[in-house]
Write a structure and sequence with these properties.
Number of strands: 7
Number of helices: 4
Strand content: 25-35%
Order of helices and strands: HHHEEHEEEEE
Distance between the termini: 43 Å
Helix content: 25-40%
Shape: globular
Amino acid sequence: MWTRKAPARRPPADGSRSDGCSWPASDLAGVGDGGVDVAWQADAVDDRRILWELEQRRLIADTLLDYCEYVDRNDPETLVPLVFAADARFELSPSRAVIGHADLVKMFAKTLAGFARTSHHLSNVRISFDGDARAEADSYVYAWHQTPLGQRIEVWGRYHDRLLLTADGWRIERRRLSTAGYDGWEGAPFELMSRLPNPVDPPSPVIQRT
């Protein structure tokens, strides 16, 4: 795991300071005589990795937001190659999935044809990296839909995504949607979010006056 040390200045090779004071001996270790300061090199590597991860997080977030934008624009032809890897799978349940660009375009076109308007909103995004070319992202989604007859359908859930860094940028190679609940959608095909069972007769807390 990459960690950032506290910001510090690089001591000069002769150990001098402009304020006339002395650098701590620990800061001068490895400095001078043309030697390489390993600790400062490590800091530089850490900084580069932090900057790289920050930029990749931004790019991954853009991919997740592109999904929302192009679904709400009803544009499957742009959405699928912009957001999904060539052999991506969208898992509707543990045993059902749509795989590959051609069928993903058909899935979105068929689904979105039933609505006059949609609005997707992401929050609580968490991103972790598995090396330099793979990542996982979890995000909460609120999705509002309206049919041509004015019926409203709402979904509250989470996207669980695995992403791949391709020559064209970050693309989702697997997406799974689980839901906390929904209104107006009978027989929605999505699995429920996992949740621990409620305890039996939990005790009440002590409420103190302050």
